[in-house]
Specification:
Largest sheet: 5 strands, antiparallel
Helix content: 25-40%
Number of domains: 3
Strand content: 25-35%
Strand order of the largest sheet: 4-5-9-7-8
Shape: globular
Distance between the termini: 26 Å
Order of helices and strands: EHEHEEEHEHHEEEEEHEEHEHEHEEHEEH
CATH topology of the largest domain: Uridine Diphospho-n-acetylenolpyruvylglucosamine Reductase, domain 3
CATH architecture of the largest domain: 2-Layer Sandwich
Structural class: alpha+beta
Length: 366
């Protein structure tokens, strides 16, 4: 039996099953880009899934693929790009080594989810090993598979508490031929929020709608459009005329800006990285609660996602989230409690965990 504190590297589903059956406590880890979720826990064996990598099936004409869970997102992005396709939910840390399984377990989508939806809208099937070593399949490998309960959706954001992902299937979309971004200096946070609301209800198909902050902490709205390069300049001009202002960014500046967003490279080193789901109406109250804390912020996906770089004690941030009725997930930083703020659905989550992991093989991460 493997002792706690060890690292077991696996390269097959059978090896994963064996690891689950022969260890007392187990924590699955992929690329290790989310340190708060993959740091070793006391008396817990780390299951290194990087060897469980590779694309198993890919049908460009059907816009679906199946890959092993330890596959790096960069590998997938390269394979899809060769056929003009991509993952529209825009997962973060692609170039930094994030894996497909880790992204699902953390439930991460990026700014590009604005138009087409998040990760949940693209995962169509999965195979995973539960706490009893059983290999379970949910969903399918084609889009029109509606048989059974979508159990694989429970694994999104599960943080490895319910099982170890070994194989996943996704649908994909054609990637826009080119992109262009319009930057609007909002002046005040209230104006930025109002502008996001106006754009969300407008006639333009936006790829991304984010609020960012300059060095003086002044807010600006970034509006990204994608499509055919022959008509994109006209669409940006129409958007600018509709708004009555805005500065179009050069193509290379657009590319660098959104690559930086995916890498969360706008955050200074040493800060904890926290993801907070919210609605546009909750942006202003959160801003007020963070005033004077030195927190770095970016409001993405039309104001439905906040990325926070927290420089201080995470207990302080948790108290502020509690007051607002918000929840957060610590992705990077030193913590034994990645889930902070208000928790909902705990009774249901506990029942599901008892069913899939009755021997408590996987961490609680409460």
């Amino acid at each position: 039996m493997a002792a706690g504190g060890e690292v077991i590297a696996v390269d097959s589903t059978a090896a994963v099953q064996d690891a689950v059956l022969t260890t007392r406590r187990l924590l699955a880890r992929g690329g290790g880009t989310k340190s708060a979720l993959s740091a070793p826990l006391p008396e817990t064996t780390v299951l290194d899934l990087r060897g469980l990598s590779g694309m198993l099936e890919y049908e460009p004409g059907e816009f679906v693929f199946t890959a092993l869970a330890g596959t790096p997102l960069q590998t997938l992005a390269t394979a899809l790009a060769a056929h003009g396709q991509y993952l529209p939910f825009d997962p973060p840390w692609v170039e930094q080594g994030a894996t497909l399984g880790g992204t699902i377990a953390a439930g991460l989508s990026g700014s590009g989810r604005q138009r087409y939806g998040g990760l949940r809208d693209f995962l169509i099937g999965a195979r995973y090993v539960d706490g009893q070593g059983r290999l379970i399949r949910s969903g399918g490998k084609v889009v029109k598979n509606a048989a059974g309960f979508d159990q694989h959706k429970l694994l999104i954001g599960s943080l490895g508490r319910l099982g170890v992902l070994v194989e996943v299937s996704f649908k994909v979309f054609p990637q826009p031929q080119s992109y262009s971004t319009l930057r609007i200096d909002a002046g005040t946070m209230g104006a930025a929020v109002d502008l996001l609301g106006r754009l969300a209800l407008g006639k333009f198909d936006t790829e991304a709608l984010d609020i960012v902050f300059d060095e003086d902490d002044a807010p600006a709205v970034l509006v990204r459009l994608g499509g055919w390069s022959t008509v994109l300049p006209q669409r940006i001009a129409s958007l600018r005329a509709w708004l009555g202002r805005g500065t179009p960014l050069a193509a290379d500046e657009d590319l660098a800006l959104w690559r930086q967003a995916r890498a969360l490279a706008w955050l200074p080193a040493g800060t904890a990285v926290v993801k907070i789901p919210l609605t546009l109406t909750e942006v202003a109250p959160l801003e007020d609660a963070l005033a004077g804390t030195g927190a770095h912020r970016r409001y993405a996906a039309g104001g439905n996602l906040a990325w926070i770089g927290w420089p201080g004690d995470l207990a302080d941030l948790e108290a502020r989230l509690h007051m607002l009725g918000l929840a957060g997930l610590v992705l990077v930083g030193q913590t034994t409690k990645p889930l902070i703020g208000v928790r909902t659905g705990e009774n249901l989550a506990a029942r599901i965990k008892r069913t899939l992991d009755p021997n408590n093989k996987f961490p609680e991460l409460a």
